[in-house]
Design goal:
Layout: H1 11-85, H2 94-99, E1 103-110, E2 116-119, E3 137-143, E4 150-157, E5 162-168, E6 181-185, E7 191-194, H3 204-208, E8 214-220, E9 223-232, H4 235-238, E10 243-250, H5 254-257, H6 259-302, H7 317-351, H8 355-365, E11 374-380, E12 387-393, E13 402-406, H9 409-417, E14 421-424, E15 444-452, E16 455-464, H10 467-472, H11 475-503, H12 513-530, E17 533-541, H13 544-551, H14 553-571, E18 576-581, E19 584-592, H15 595-612, E20 617-619, E21 622-624, E22 628-635, H16 642-658, E23 663-666, H17 669-691, E24 694-703, E25 708-720, E26 724-726, H18 728-737, H19 741-761, E27 768-773, H20 783-794, E28 801-806, H21 807-811, H22 814-827, E29 830-836, H23 843-848, E30 853-856, H24 868-883, E31 887-891, H25 896-905, E32 909-911, H26 921-929
Parallel strand pairs: 22-23, 25-27, 27-28, 28-29, 29-30, 30-31, 31-32
Antiparallel strand pairs: 1-2, 1-5, 3-4, 4-5, 6-7, 6-10, 8-9, 9-10, 11-12, 11-16, 12-13, 14-15, 15-16, 17-19, 17-22, 18-19, 20-21, 24-25, 24-32, 25-26
Length: 932
């Protein structure tokens, strides 16, 4: 098989080839690794066994030499014993030396006489010689006199008075591997012989402690050695401890041993690669050829070229895929044709409102989609719903183009109730309005009714000479096409409906904001061109949110509908009434001759509207009341653009709400300035909070009788960067309107608590620090939790705080407000009723509140001591406070006479400018706290 490299240009081909290669090489590589590991294990085992045998052979060779020498010296000793017994003193003679030929020197000595050399140099007894038995031999390693060398000596006990000493030169010619190291050690581990200056491996003693012979590995000079050792047991014949033979051989390199494996596995791997390439090429050819055909066909389909079909003959899934692709291609071709026709219809619908022209387009282009034998388009006449004009077309027959028919009520009902009607004309007669089918020998027919508001306005009938063509017909796609025809009939109405949805309010059927904008722009343009005037009234229902919140949006919507209907009846005649969202309405009056006329019309409309709201609204049997706030602005007197017209009307409406609601306000330049300043102040308050421009001032509370400081009230001031120091009456009402009071109030509590903690830490005494809570703050349900958290964070005692509330602050929502006050009281904080006598002064509420203090308002203090009526009121308040066991504080004391009179009446704790105006923290500290 020839290898074709062109296939490998494909990523799929490369992946398949790689898969084959990996599949072939993995078993070979795994087998090689296994064989390598097995060889390594066997080689190590063999090396250890061979080393043990080598060191043992060396030991046995050494023992053989030593025992041979022992036999020679023993034989010589026996001869000397006989000579000495016969009183024949031995002398140096070759006769004696022949009995021990392997000794280099022999000496006989008596402990009492002079030693006699039998051979070689004269030897002396080694030190530390053990007690030897008669004829016993001892081996020793001794230092050579006057030298650092070692000598091996054998000492033999001839009789009880004579010793034979022999020096030997052992044969160290062992059969060693290249690079092998050997050590021979005596019983006290002195080196008898070595071929290396290197000391014995340090771990030798560790292994010797466990067994007398063995092997281990040792690394020395970047080289691995296999070390074996073997003991020589010399006690029986040489009366010495165990000698030791140590042999270190370089470890065998497994890769050197594995060279034979390479000779086997490399050809195997090469064969596997070639086989993988051949097999993968066959598989790649089998896969890529169909894939290439399918890929080419896919690109053709992307270009909307649906011919030719894909041909794959592989008797597998690729052939099935090709068949499925051909079916998909055919279906796509059909769908594209359908979409093309529908696109043409959509364009025609958007460009014309003639429904019959749309039907003619269908009539022309349907033959590209359906292989019909007869096409009939029937259009019902508008003047006579039972008369129908038929337009007939056929690629086979020469037939009239137009023909008239009549349709009965039952046939109209059948069209109304069916999306399509399929008839087998061999079994059933066609409907009367399609009797023309019988003239052309159609066997099957498919009828599609085109409906407008459930009423048939046209039909499209397809005739087929055989059933096969009918089965190929896709009714769903045809239904989509014919639906376009229905859209064409309803397009005008549909356009009108869309326009109404975009420009009218669904709930009230009044014009919406978009419609108002269009009309307003046109009215302003006419006013500019012709010197006319316009009026915009911005109408907002008062308190409508309460109805939505309490009764639900369903009731709210019904109520809005009623209100809108009445407004339309009352002021609709003045101009364009529109609902722009929620409970907001506008009335636009244009083309007015002058401002006087405009103002007159606006006043009439506003008063008529407000007067109409005096009558109740009824939803079922439930009665509701409504009122409205109206802002009125004129063009071009008050503004220049439609945006300004909206904006200024909205401003005026809010001003009407501020004036008490159920009112109307004309826009003015002063109103614009006031609102602009108000909005600017609002923005500056946000900046002040972020940049900490607010300051806490402190006004003392004094026991006038004793002249002692008993507390203080924390009051906010605003150190404005350009306006200077601002008092709270300038900005706090606005803060309450904007909900900024929540952040400011929390900041005041935190700042005051921090200052109180600082004073307490410095050792100053301040019994209580009073803080004000506004009515708006009581709508903050977690107010108590926030204050508790600040107290815990600043580390002050709750009993040092007193919270002042006015009667109006909690009367509006007494239950929720009382819960917050109870929480503060439970924490240990004191509660004070501020400005008593200026509100409701209800005994019922006083009974329910856990108060500690009552403050007499400044309005009763200002006219003292001359106002007898106020003195009576103050006496009554003091009596009430004593009966309720409340501490009493008089605020607004400005003169000595007022202070003395209040003391006489029984109110000694006082606060006011007579004692001090509110002061910054440092001035308050130096003026009052430091003087305690």
């Amino acid at each position: 098989m020839k290898i074709e490299l062109k296939f490998f240009h494909s990523r799929v081909a490369r992946r398949i080839f790689l898969l084959f290669v990996v599949s072939a090489l993995i078993p070979v590589i795994l087998l090689a690794l296994f064989q390598f590991m097995q060889m390594d294990r066997q080689l190590k085992e063999k090396s250890h066994m061979q080393l043990r045998q080598d060191v043992k052979n060396m030991g046995m060779q050494l023992i053989g030499q030593l025992f041979n020498l022992e036999s020679q010296i023993n034989l010589l000793g026996r001869g000397l014993e006989t000579a000495l017994a016969e009183k024949k003193l031995p002398a140096k003679s070759g006769h004696w030396a022949q009995l021990a030929p392997d000794f280099t020197a022999l000496t006989v000595m008596n402990l009492d006489t002079k030693p006699v050399s039998l051979k070689g140099k004269l030897l002396s007894l080694p030190k530390k010689m053990p007690a030897l038995p008669l004829h016993g031999t001892w081996i020793s390693l001794s230092n050579v006199p006057n030298s650092g060398d070692k000598q091996v000596l054998l000492v033999h006990k001839v009789d009880f008075g004579h010793f034979l000493i022999g020096e030997v030169q052992l044969d160290w010619n062992f059969d060693l591997h290249p690079g092998a190291l050997i050590w021979v050690l005596n019983y006290d581990r002195q080196v008898v012989y070595t071929n290396s200056p290197t000391s014995v491996p340090p771990q030798l003693s560790q292994y010797m402690a466990n067994q007398d012979t063995g092997t281990f590995t040792w690394s020395f000079n970047d080289r691995n050695y296999l070390v074996g050792y073997w003991h020589l047991f010399l006690r029986e014949r040489l009366h010495s401890g165990k000698w030791l033979v140590v042999l270190a051989e370089p470890e065998t390199n497994i890769f050197v041993q594995a060279q034979k494996l390479y000779l086997i596995f490399l050809p195997t791997i090469l064969f596997a690669l070639i086989l993988s390439m051949l097999l993968s090429q066959a598989q790649i050819r089998r896969i890529l050829v169909p894939l290439e055909e399918l890929s080419k066909a896919t690109r053709r389909v992307a270009r909307r070229d649906f011919t030719p079909m894909v041909t794959v003959k592989s008797n597998d899934e690729f052939e099935e895929l090709a068949e499925a692709f051909n079916k998909m291609s055919k279906r796509l071709q059909h769908q594209f044709k359908t979409l093309s026709i529908m696109s043409s219809l959509d364009q025609a619908i958007l460009s014309t409102q003639d429904a019959e022209e749309i039907l003619h387009i269908i009539f022309k282009e349907l033959d590209e989609l359906v292989d019909y034998d007869l096409l009939i388009l029937g259009v019902l006449e508008r003047d006579d719903e039972h008369a129908m004009q038929l337009m007939i077309d056929s690629p086979v027959y020469e037939i009239p183009k137009v023909q008239k028919a009549f349709i009965s009520d039952s046939e109209i009902e059948a069209l109304r109730n069916n999306k399509n009607i399929i008839l087998n004309l061999a079994e059933a007669d066609p409907p009367g309005y399609l009797n023309v089918l019988a003239q052309y020998h159609m066997q099957h027919t498919l009828i599609f009714p085109i409906l407008h508001r459930t009423q048939p306005v046209a039909i499209i009938c397809l005739g087929f000479a055989n059933a096969a063509a009918l089965k190929e017909c896709r009714t769903e796609e045809l239904a989509d096409i014919f639906y376009r025809a229905a859209v064409a009939f309803t397009y005008a109405e549909w356009e009108e409906r869309l326009y109404r949805q975009a420009h009218y309010d669904d709930l009230t059927n009044l014009p919406n904001r978009l419609f108002l904008r269009d009309e307003m722009n046109q009215a302003l343009e006419r006013a500019s061109l012709y010197g006319k005037h316009c009026v915009l009234m911005f109408i907002d229902l008062d308190n409508f949110k309460d109805i939505n919140d309490t009764l639900g949006h369903a009731v709210g919507d019904r109520f809005l509908n009623k209100v809108a209907h009445r407004m339309h009846n009352v002021i609709g005649k003045y101009g364009l009434l529109a609902r722009i969202g929620g409970d907001e309405f506008t009335l636009l009056m244009g083309d007015l001759a002058n401002k006087e006329t405009a103002k007159q019309k606006a006043t009439e409309a506003a008063e008529a509207l407000l007067h109409s709201f005096l009558r109740s609204f009824y939803l079922g049997e439930v009665e509701y009341h409504a009122s409205a706030s109206v802002g009125i602005v004129f063009y071009p007197d008050d503004c220049n653009t439609s945006d300004e017209l909206f904006k200024f009307a909205d401003m005026s409406m809010y001003e009407a709400k501020k004036m008490g609601k159920n009112n109307y306000v004309f826009f003015s330049a002063q109103l614009e300035t006031s609102i602009r300043e108000r909005n600017q102040l609002m923005q500056e308050m946000h900046t002040a909070l972020e940049e900490e421009q607010f300051i806490v001032y402190f006004q003392p509370k004094v026991n006038s009788k004793k002249g002692e400081l008993v507390g203080a009230e924390a009051l906010i001031r605003w150190q404005h960067p350009t306006r200077g120091l601002l008092f709270p009456d300038l900005f706090m009402p606005l803060a309450e309107e904007s909900n900024l009071i929540f952040s400011i109030g929390e900041w005041v509590v935190q700042a005051a608590c921090k200052q109180l903690y600082t004073w307490k830490k410095q050792g100053y005494k301040l019994s209580t620090l009073a803080l004000n809570i506004t009515a708006k703050q009581f709508t903050q349900k977690d107010l108590g939790n926030r204050i508790q958290r600040i107290i815990e964070q600043t580390g002050i005692s709750p009993k040092d705080l007193e919270f002042e509330v006015t009667e109006s602050a909690f009367i509006a929502n007494f239950d929720e407000s009382n819960l917050i006050l109870n929480q503060l009281s439970w924490l240990g904080c004191r509660l004070s009723l501020d400005d008593f006598g200026t509100g409701y002064s209800s005994m019922h509420y006083l009974h329910k509140l856990h108060l500690d203090t009552m403050k007499i308002d400044r309005i009763f203090i200002t006219s003292l001591p001359d106002d007898k009526k106020n003195i009576s009121i103050i006496k009554a308040i003091i009596t009430l406070a004593k009966n309720l066991n409340l501490e009493l504080v008089a605020e607004g004391v400005e003169t000595k006479a007022q202070s003395e009179l209040l003391c006489e009446l029984g109110c000694a704790i006082q606060q006011g400018f007579y004692f001090s105006k509110p002061l910054p923290a440092d001035e308050f500290e130096s003026k009052f706290l430091m003087k305690q």
